[in-house]
Amino acid sequence: MSSYIKQIESIIEQEPENELLEASVLYRQELSTIPEASYYKTLGRMCKQGKLVHLSKGLYYRPMISRYGTVPISDAEIIRHYTQEGTGIVIGYPLYNRIGLTTQISKRVEVLSSNLTEQTKNVGNICVSSCFLEFNDESTPIIESLEVLQNYSKIEDINKEALAAYMTRFAKLYSDKTAVQVLQTRKYKKSTIAFLERFLNYHGIENTLNQFLSALSSYSLPEMEEFYETT
What we know:
By secondary structure, this protein is of the alpha+beta class. Helix content is 41%, strand content 15%. It has nine helices and nine strands. Strand 2 (53-56) and strand 3 (59-61) form a beta hairpin. The longest helix is centred in the N-terminal third of the chain and has 13 residues, at 36-48. The mean pLDDT is 94.
């Protein structure tokens, strides 16, 4: 047992301070020859000793100790863990703020990530949802626009002129092939897809989004005149 403890502690002490540590991943990659019960018992002991901090189910970090005490892991580091190297993006109010749709803010940060083995994971104020997509220069704008339009009616104090400007910029860079790939992987409401189609049609952008819509259904959507002045 003592040899197990030394081996586990030795591996964990090599981990960077204040970076997220996924217990199951570390076990699978470095310590799978050790009985799993012994592994998790050691993690618990290290937490009691202050060598580890238990952040959420299955998540730990090796704390940074300053002259003033333990420095807690930052939200930015948690977000980085789930979005690094094209594995995820931040959505929700940080996205709405970034593109100028509203000045309202939220303590809750929403993240879509392919670096997640569960459907959802809550880590403090951060909610991570699983999304098995490659986040790149083509797919990210598609996902972001769909997230904006899906939550349009819920965004507090939304600036409709800013939304119009955002969708105008988006339409110029629209890739129908990428949009289809995104919609085949991640589910969005049909009304959201119809909303996107309406913006694209307004700008004369060819698209095949009707393949995801029902010809027999009508969708309650805002008219483009709400966003663009007409003469």
